[in-house]
Write a structure and sequence with these properties.
heterodimer, A: 184 residues, Arc Repressor Mutant, subunit A, 2 domains, globular, B: 221 residues, 9 helices, 82% helix, elongated
Chain lengths: 184, 221
């Protein structure tokens, strides 16, 4: 989990020039880049989509950056933008009547066979398969759950109450159990 | 069993992050070098389109207002000017509403809020398309009468019978358009056929997205 206090401390430094703002943004992008990568992976169907989606997210983050409020954790804000862009991307690029589009494994360069173990490779393949079974909004919940985010942060990202998040997560886990049982 | 499987998923998730980390410095480098393709994403084209529509709407409203003010004593020209001005005002109103909806979209807001706003924007576009279709099927008539008048031909005075034919054509256009819409909304065979057409699917998708968000948002017990 990324340090929330670190985010706030960093943003209390006054921003003087546009270059300083850009430099700070780039630093935050490097620091929290994992969020963009994981979100893009979860919503893109192939390597080319993933690159496009990552670009879209970064551009939207940069565009929205002036409205970012330092009182809020940067990671929460980044999740919101990355997920909003990705859900819209998925809706825009999914063909009508075919909401769930499976990953095109041959197009994903994530798991280079020579660099990871067979077991990890299988786990990532299973993860991919499971992710595609979820609708765009549930996929966001799954992603935040896998990322070990607190109920509070999940609620803030999605715009739900913490109680609702807790209930939804328990249903999501049930759904996951079923999916994993099918896969086994 | 399930805990192990959940653990497996989380391990895979962490491993995936490591793998992605190794390979994805490219986007950051592109951003630093200012090489990310601009205008690729989002609502910017829509904003440009609506701004253009606003300008066109204002132009139509102003020109038509000038026209009817100068022809207060000629009833048919006055009516043509007023109809065209109403059309221009509709253009302005729809464009302003669109721009307002787009303006309130802040991608930094919670997912449920933004996705609902985007779905509402899509649903609004579909509703607006109906009105453009209906008005478009008749507005050509006053436009034609005004243009011909400006070119020196007052069709109503010089060829009154032709005007009635044109009015009949406009009414027929309107009726066909309306019938098409009614048919698309019906549950008969034609309705079902039209429902799977592009228009039907757009309506369905916009509605399905809204329903999905509302269901997701609903408090579960």
């Amino acid at each position: 989990m990324e340090a929330v206090t670190g985010d706030i401390r960093e943003y209390t430094v006054p921003m003087k020039t546009s270059e300083a703002i850009r430099a700070r943004f780039e630093r935050l992008l490097e620091q929290h880049g994992g969020i963009i990568r994981k979100v893009a992976f979860s919503y893109a169907r192939n390597e080319s989509d993933r690159r496009d989606l990552m670009q879209d997210i970064v551009l939207q983050l940069w565009k929205a950056y002036p409205r970012y409020s330092p009182e809020r954790p940067f990671s929460t804000w980044m999740y919101r933008i990355a997920l909003n862009v990705s859900i819209s991307f998925l809706r825009r690029t999914t063909r009508p009547g075919r909401e769930m589009v499976p990953f095109d494994e041959s197009q994903h360069d994530v798991a280079h066979k020579h660099s990871i173990s067979r077991q990890t490779e299988e786990r990532i393949a299973m993860l991919r398969e499971v992710i595609t079974k979820f609708a765009p909004l549930d996929r966001a919940l799954l992603l935040l759950y896998l990322d070990d985010r607190s109920y509070r942060e999940i609620a803030a990202v999605l715009g739900l109450s913490e109680t609702n998040v807790a209930t939804k997560l328990s249903r999501l886990k049930e759904h996951l159990r079923q999916e994993l049982a099918i896969n086994h | 069993m399930p805990t192990t499987d959940f653990d497996d998923l989380k391990i895979a998730w962490k491993e995936l992050n490591r793998q992605l980390e190794r390979q994805n410095a490219l986007t950051l480098r592109q951003f630093k070098e200012g090489k990310l393709a601009r205008f690729r994403f989002g609502l910017r084209p829509l904003v440009l389109g609506q701004t253009l529509q606003l300008v066109v709407g204002v132009a139509i409203a102003v020109v038509s207002a000038q026209f009817w003010v100068n022809h207060l004593s000629t009833t048919h020209l006055l009516i043509c000017g007023l109809l065209l001005q109403a059309y221009g005002i509709m253009f302005i109103a729809f464009a302003l509403r669109d721009l307002m909806l787009i303006r309130r979209i802040d991608y930094g807001a919670p997912i449920v809020v933004i996705q609902k706003q985007l779905a509402q924007l899509r649903a609004w576009h579909i509703r607006v398309a109906f009105w453009y279709g209906m008005t478009g099927s008749v507005i050509w008539l006053p436009v034609m009468l005004i243009v011909l008048y400006e070119l020196g031909v007052d069709l109503r005075t010089d060829h009154p019978q032709k005007v009635w034919w044109l009015v009949a054509s406009a009414v027929a256009c309107l009726a066909v358009n309306y019938g098409f819409v009614r048919l698309a909304r019906s549950s008969g065979r034609c309705g079902r056929a039209l429902a799977v057409s592009w228009i039907g699917r757009s309506v369905h998708r916009a509605q399905a997205a809204l329903t999905e968000i509302e269901e997701f948002e609903r408090e579960l017990v």
